[in-house]
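Extended Data, record Fungal-specific transcription factor domain-containing protein
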Amino acid sequence: MGQLSCAVTPRGQGDCNDDIRLPNYIEHAPSHITKKDLDYLQSKGALGLPHYKVQMKQWKAYWKYAYPCNPILDPTEIMNIMQGHKSRTKISLFLFQCVLLVGRLFLDIHEGSCTNSVHLQAMFQKIRLLYNLGWETNPFVVLKSLLLMTWFPQSVDESKGQAYWITQAVSLAFRIGLHRDPSQLDIEQRLRSLRKRLWWCLYVRERTLNLDAGLPWIIDENDYDVPMITIHDFELVPPSCGFEDNIPFAELGAINRQRQIALMSVERAALMVLVGRLPSISIHIADRSKKRPGKPLLHTHGQRLNKLSIDEFDYSLDQWMNNLPPEVNYHGSNSLASWVGDGQLYMHCTMLRLSYSIVRLQSAALRYLQNKSIVDHRSRKMVSAACFLIIDLIEELNYHEYSAYVPLYGFSTLRPVLIWAIISQEQNIKRYQGFPQLLALQYKVGKADPYYLLFQSYLQHKNITMKEDTLYLSP
């Protein structure tokens, strides 16, 4: 893929050469970046951008697939910058590179490429160079960029994986006071809403990633007082106000569509507040380096819940589902026909339902674990039902060619199967009629999954060998 490079100079020390330059909406190098730093970054390709057409393709992919689930950018502000309208700021190169990375991830998956390709690894390393060198000094821009870096899929046990980057983001958010109620700040209402959106995007991403990784929650419910986000915190802009064909925000569409996207963000935040009431569950398969790994185990982190607490949680979860606005609950429609022509919106609504199903599995697994000293067939059935509801949704997404996106949104496609299999291990897993097909599906959509290596260890423990879409069970 061709690169557009530029001899980027510090602000106030000249411009790019006349032949090749960065887009005029990208900031010059910060004044604290030295010539030596620039030469080093240039030698590593960290200052290069794809050709304009490729940029726009990746940029549009971000707005189409990532923004609806994590609306951290301000479309109106970005639009004004890119169109040269009255804006005193430009887009940070660091942030721009992060957006392009996320867009590239979705494009590569859509085109059938593996998300751990050499090109994507190199792209991520260039972004890390900019971060480590302290390219960006605006803490809000750094925070947005860190959130985008968490989209890069890595193994669940990677030391500087997604959990590391979300921890850095949360730490920065508390340092800059983002966890405080913005209504007390002497700023215009639009900026208050932007702060609320950024906080709740951070909150949702932290809960989502740590739920999936089985890590303790970072954000304590007693440590912030930001009011719950509402539909009024989103600026809904009619396409006639500047969403031209050559500007990627056409991907957001008409007012009704923007409203649906905003409602999903509100409901996702409310769901993740519920999640914070549950302990997290981690998966351990000991001695993975040995030929015969140890027995797979589930561990909880946080205060253990009794049956009454889990019952109360399940009731709250049911209330959340029952009160979903009809605009974002496609199961409330007569059929999928209402979504024909807007596959992306259908996908985002399905992802919201998938989030609910994964939380339901978490609750069912905790119900089993708090009473695992006895054989609890009812709890096992609840785990199985929750797991296979997830599989049904993934199969549905797979039918529409969206299933491979699931890990990018923070949910492993393999983790639910592992939880179900570990809890059901006293039964003969290999005799389960649907197990081969289920594993084949997970293999197909899970190559970029954070639990892929752990899943292989589990298969080794069970003497199960899998090649492509075929499963071989050892006698």
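Summary. Residues 343-369 form the longest helix (27 residues).
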